[in-house]
Each structure stands twice: as structure tokens, then as C-alpha cells.
Amino acid sequence: MKWIRLLLAGWSTLVAALFLASSSGDVTVQLFGSSKHAQYLVKGLVMSGLVVPIILYLYQHLYRMTGIKPKTPIYSWKRGYHFFTGVLLAIALGAMGFIIASSQGWIVIEKWHAPDQWFAALLINVVFAVLYEALPEELGLRGFLYDVLRHRFPAWLSVLLQTLLFVAVTTAVALIQAFVGLAPGVSLDISYIVIIFCFGVGLQLLRLWTGSLWASIGYHLTYLEIMRFAILPHVYGVPPIITYQDSVHGLSFLFAIAMMQIGGIIVSLVILGTKRLIQKRKMIRTDTHS
Length: 290
Prior knowledge:
Strand content: under 5%
Distance between the termini: 42 Å
Number of strands: 2
Structural class: mainly alpha
Strand order of the largest sheet: 1-2
Shape: globular
Radius of gyration: 20 Å
């Protein structure tokens, strides 16, 4: 039952780190005042500072348990070029969403804002998003927890279980925050749970067909920045990348979610299916020649 202990250790690490990181804002205010940048930096350092070394340590136990240590792990820098695979896929799906919505009259694009108005804020948020969200979550969830589950279950079930654990991390942290008297970081309604469930599935499938965790990190990061600086702007006190009007309130948000999450899942499934079909044909040809 060692795999269960590893699974619980990895999941508990993510829950504890996210709770401590999200709760570190109060301490940061006392030390550095009300600077949002300082709060973001401390939260990111706490999250990655706890999750990354612990998960990498747990990976060594997983390798010993399975008796297999890959020459190039899925988190290796040698697979880092796939970071741009994730970035470009998210940008392509996001841009396609805007093009379709604009051509159908669902949104009216009013203005593109010059980068000097939002680029600095976006770069600062990229650093925060990598440390607080993209890197630790992908390493822990789409990396370690999936690999532990894959040791025991088929791929499709491992994807499903990992995604449920992803939802459970957010739920557990919100419940702990409420229990100790802190305001929950997220609102746990059905729509939010559906969104993060689809997000988790898409990110896991992306890791599977690229064979690299960096693709998931790149997609995760780019998705967050598109949502924060194009779809749901003005949160960071700077003009958005683009200003537009919805024909129906909230339509652009729903369409962007559908394009970048459901669209990402469809693209990944098509690529995975194509790769499997090619592999089967190669096997048939090999058997025929032999």
C-alpha cells in the first residue's frame, strides 16, 4: 500500500502549502505594509518553496517503488522546450475565440491598448503565477499524483482521479480557511468546480501527448494571463490588452472558457488518438514484415 501513502503525502503537501501560502498575506502586510507585489511574491515563494522540493523528494520514493527511473523525467529541463508548446496552444485557442466571437457579433472590439500600459503588470503577474500556481500545481498534480495513480490504474482512470484530487485540493483549502476563521480564497459553487475540473483534464491530456510537464506549465500560465489581462481585466489597476463589449453580459467569459478548456481537451484527444493510430499501424507493419 506504499502507493497510497505516497498519494496522500503528495496531496497533503499541496493542501498544506496552498493554505500556508494563501494565508501568508496577513504576515506580509505586517512586515511590508499593504504592497500587493510583496504579498504576491511571498505567497509564490511559500507555495513553490514548500511544494517543489517535497514533491521532487517524493518522486525519488516513487522511482524506488516502481523500480523505474526515467533518464529524462517529465519535469526535466531537457523537456523545457515544450513550455512554448503550451504557451502557443493557449494563445491560439484564445485568439480563435476572439476571432469567432467578433465575426459572429457576440463581442464588439473597441480598442487594443499599447503594451506600455499593461506589459509591466503582466510580467509581474507572470512571476507570481509561475511560483504560486503553474509550477507547483503542475509538478504536484499533473506530475507526481498522476504518476502515482498511473502505477496502479489505466491512463483514463488516472486522469479522472487526478482531476478529482485537483478539485479536492481547492475544496479542502477553502474548508480549512473557513474552519480557522479566514475568508475562503475561492467561491465553491458548481460553476467553479466544473471549470477547474475541465481545466485539470485538459492540462493532464496536454502533458500526456507532449510527454513533458513543461507544456502543462506553459499552458496553465498563459491561460491565467489571458483571463486576467484580456477576459477579466481591471483587477490589477492597469488597462487590459483589449477593450470590447459583450452582446450578452458574461458571454465572452463563457466562450473564452469553452475555447481554452473544452477546445484544449478536444485538441489533445485528437492528437492522442492520431498518435495511437500511427503506433498501431507501425505495429501492424512490423508484424507483417516479420
